[in-house]
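Recap for those who missed Tuesday's class. We walked through two folding examples back to back. For each one, the amino acid string is listed first and its predicted structure tokens come directly after. Nothing is annotated here on purpose, so try labeling regions yourself before you check the end of the notes.
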Amino acid sequence: MIWDMTSYQNRGSGRRMAKFIHRATQFSLQTKVFLMFLALLLFVLGCFIVYVNIVVIRPSSRKRNRIHS
């Protein structure tokens, strides 16, 4: 009798805990859109920094080195 009661309690609490964990990881649509926008913004800014470094800064530093040499 005691064994049946404890196994029943453990099964029930495990299911409730699994539902709680599953619900805790859900985000609202507004949060998902904001996080996606933030990720895309960081990606675009990163690409822009790489572009500026390759296209603008390197040629100007080479040109400056030729003038001073």
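Example two. Treat it independently of the first, because the proteins are unrelated.
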Amino acid sequence: MADDRDEISSLDFPCGAFPAHGEFRVRFQDGLFRWTNRGPFNAEALQQFDQARKAAFARWCRMQEPVAAVVEWRESALMSQDAFDLYRQGLERFLASPHQLRAVAWVAPQELEGMRFMRQRFIDLFEHHQLPLQLFESLAEALTWVAAMQRGKHSPSASSGQAGRTNA
């Protein structure tokens, strides 16, 4: 069983020829992958994120148990087009592998730099792959939603990205 204090950082992994801008940190707690993403992000940061995600699932995921992720965005959600392309490619590789990821909740204030711009791109990507994604301003609401999704209490098609938002 994973120690709740264990944490993996994208900065623990090598990146390309240029320094990474942005960091992804993850811990596994109460059946949830708890990510803290601090941007803005360049392609090198997304290369490291891909490695961190693989390491996290290898360390903590028991294939028979459904898991979910809660992602807290800090400072910025902006990423270059190259970085977003790497995010998409990494997500597609991950989803093609055996996994039990049931839902992803994002937590960010409406005014977070880049969230308004990046939001629809991510919603479209998750909907395309039928992975429920919801955006929240409240961590408590996000935790409640992912817990319900893990128990199968909500329809997976509810990935409108609108939960917890009034006029975002």
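Answers for example two:
The radius of gyration is 15 Å.
The first strand starts at residue 8 and ends at 9.
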